[in-house]
Design brief:
This protein is 13% helix and 47% strand. Strands 1-2-3-4-5-6-7-8-9-10-11-12 form a twelve-stranded antiparallel beta barrel. By secondary structure, the protein is mainly beta. It has one helix at 132-151, and strands at residues 2-6, 14-18, 21-28, 34-39, 42-48, 55-60, 63-69, 77-82, 85-91, 99-103, 108-114, 122-125. The longest helix is centred in the C-terminal third of the chain and has 20 residues, at 132-151. The relative contact order is 0.17.
């Protein structure tokens, strides 16, 4: 299981750990829904496709590797496409910060959850069969949602 911790109390930048080893850095931009992600020697960019767009991409070397679409502004739900695979990442409930990853036919694969209700540290319980880059992209989508909620005062 992975875990992620913000760099500091007021930071939205995260380090992702596998045990005690840092495996990824997520450097979130201040004003936009974008970040630079370093996974080992691989430098990636995650971002919203454009102003008002419902799409988000994960790119490395100018190539789009993954895409997520948020079909509704009213629900914390993303449809994620990785190669030929498709997943749904959605809030477990309207009142919790835990996100559940499912296949498109509803099979639960794992969760991304806060350590406890008053922290931004997270437990990432996703299948190791998913490449690390996919798991980090999903973590970034959760960071985006948590940051929106914090900005809205909720």
């Amino acid at each position: 299981m992975l875990r992620a911790e913000p760099y500091s109390l007021f930071s939205w930048d995260y380090v992702v750990y596998d045990g005690e080893v840092a495996v990824a850095d997520i450097d979130v931009a201040w004003l936009r829904e974008r970040a630079i992600v370093d996974i080992g020697d691989l430098a990636c960019e995650v971002k919203r496709e454009g102003w008002g767009s419902k799409g988000y991409t994960f790119e490395a070397g100018g190539q789009r590797l993954m895409r997520a679409v948020k079909p509704s502004a009213f629900f914390r739900r993303y449809e994620v496409t990785v190669g030929g695979d498709a997943y749904v990442l959605e809030a477990q409930s309207a009142f919790r910060r835990t996100f559940v990853l499912r296949t498109m036919d509803g099979v639960v694969l794992g969760t991304i959850a806060p350590d406890h209700p008053f922290t931004r540290r997270m437990r990432i319980d996703l299948p190791e069969a998913l490449p690390l880059a996919v798991r980090v992209f999903l973590v970034w989508l959760v960071i985006v949602q948590w940051r929106r909620a914090a900005s809205a005062g909720g």
